[in-house]
Batch of 2 targets.
Target 1
Amino acid sequence: MLFSKSCEYALRATMYLAQMESNEKVGIKVIARDLNIPADYLNKVLQTLVQQQLVSSAKGRNGGFYLTKNELNKPLINIVHAIDGKEVFYRCGLGIKNCSSKKPCPLHNDIKAYRDNIKIALSNNSIASSRSQIDSGEVFLSK
Amino acid sequence: MLFSKSCEYALRATMYLAQMESNEKVGIKVIARDLNIPADYLNKVLQTLVQQQLVSSAKGRNGGFYLTKNELNKPLINIVHAIDGKEVFYRCGLGIKNCSSKKPCPLHNDIKAYRDNIKIALSNNSIASSRSQIDSGEVFLSK
DNA sequence: GTGCTTATATGATCTATGTCATGTTTTTTT
DNA sequence: AAAAAAACATGACATAGATCATATAAGCAC
Ligand code: FES
Ligand code: FES
């Protein structure tokens, strides 16, 4: 689709962590089970996010992944940038080099609207913002 | 992005053929050169379209690919369906099974609105419709 | 009809992505 | 100090997608 599978997993996992009490740590197995994601793979993805300081982790017994207040307030788009890079939002939908309004492809306007809309949504919404919607059962992170 | 590379190639190639005079045949090498696409690969993609009766072809000397009047009037979305299937427009952007407004993911609304938009654009526009825009230099099929 | 030019068919190879598996390090518990 | 539990690190494997290559069949020109 728009994002790589790794990125989809990353987004779902961080939104999942956002639901927890502040500083409550969740083990990888629990996250993977709840989200229906292969644990080892998700582990790898989360490590990347830890390195990028978008997610925190604690080793040892009772350790796990969690989000700090600071991390909760970062926009969701940071996750996308960390995993898929910034180019996703600027690639031509027909694969032509240098997507731009100067030399648009026939689908440019429609594609750009789509891309921009998602980009804006992810930029304006913090990781924490999904909390209430998920909590109230309006939206879901897993089937 | 949204479509597979094969599908991107397919869309560009058919729009390219739409520019030709009716029933003018173009060889695969010419198309590939003009669009900067590996010839053998594009060849394979076009064969699929020929099988699906979205593009016509003629063998032998002075043979090549071309579009009939009938084919020119078909909507562009047929190309997408032939190569990527119908699911592209119904897959959840976060990879959750069964994208639906009943059980939406946090990005569903942002994704669906504009995904539908692209789908509608491709459904309402015939293959031939790109002609004038391309011809007048408003839009481009290659860098 | 012979030879050339073209699409067609099929499969091999390469590449990126996703998945699995193993071992190491850190921290807590006892 | 020892043991256990967890993240961390690394690499092997699998799969799908994209690319390349070869051989076959069909049509045109002469
Ligand atoms: S040029 Fe194709 S999407 Fe912008
Ligand atoms: S449920 Fe995720 S895009 Fe529809």
Target 2
Amino acid sequence: MERFLIPGQKKRSCTSDALTRSPRKKIKLEKDERMKEEKDEVDEDSALAEFSHPVPWQKIEAEGLDCDYALLFAKEEADQLFKQLENEVVYSTGEEAKVQVFGKVYSIPRKQATYGDAGLTYTYSGVTRSACPWTPTLESIRDAVTKTTGQTFNFVLVNRYKDGQDHMGEHRDDEKELDPLCPIASVSLGAARDFIFRHRDARGKHSCRQIEPVKLELAHGSLLLMNPPTNTFWYHSLPVRKKVLLPRINLTFRRIVLASKK
DNA sequence: ACAGCTACAAGGAG
DNA sequence: TCTCCTTGTAGCTG
């Protein structure tokens, strides 16, 4: 099955904060950016002007970064899915929800759960646990992602951020057990949150290069595909946003290669 | 005042 | 042996 990406979309630099703003502002800023760009280069998109319908997929590209973003679920459907997940998903508690950092033990600043095919395991911060069996809602979302992308997944990591205080630090999803050719599909439900990519060579005090971060806002019902080699070169994070008061559930579907062969 | 960002704090895993 | 990962917080900026 092929992917239903619309080819030849406008190539965005995505180096500004434009995508993190409200939709109305976003349109205005995109126009401004486009005008700036047109001073420097020929408009590659004139042939696309005739497409009057909304473009479902947005290509997000930078050096070594390749993502596709789209609204997968309309609001009503996304609302329903969020409610169902709130009832179905059972999150790790107690010791399983703790992590040791710099000698101190903390509760992770979010809730986590892992679901997938029988026998699959997931290692987080040195602790390995096995996936729970798929729930009906997780299965149906997984199938919707597969229909849209043509990719199959055998595992999902569920992260629940109760409000803007809950967050996730900068990291890559480059575990060895992940299929390096399979994109990671990230479905967002609930409160919209900022999502930030940073190139590995542009991090820290002695960063050798100055590469602008790529900032997105992940909307209710959205799907973000992180294609290879994005996770080799780019770290991502979900930063604290104190103004966000409502919960968000994120599902990252992955394909884990079976570690042991018979 | 405060949201947002960076640097940095140890020790274990691979 | 070396590199990378984990989060909270001090300190700075706008």
